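User: Before I run my own analysis I want an independent prediction to cross-check against. Here's the chain; please return only the structure tokens and, at the end, one sentence I can use as a sanity check.
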Amino acid sequence: MATIFTFNARKVSRILDEYLVYGGFPEIYDSDELERKEVMQEYFRTLVQRDLIERFSIRQEALLKATIKLVLNSLTISISKLTKTLKDKSTVLVFENT
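Assistant: Structure tokens:
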């Protein structure tokens, strides 16, 4: 006996869009928009802290976080733009830490 699957294209499209934006994290799907953002921010903080800062003993945490945010928020980024921004951020961080 053949099984016929029917689906709503709009619903599938919405679910795919959510998956592409938020990933496959289970707690995301039962959450409202504010909770989703909070969960994603917590994942980001945990990933940066444990997987990068602690693992590689990074001392300039603020610079690393600024770099990651710059790259993630840019559709395209050139090495020269990244270098210039990092130099600017480094200068600001040096003054902030003195």
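Sanity check: The chain has two domains: 8-58, 59-98.
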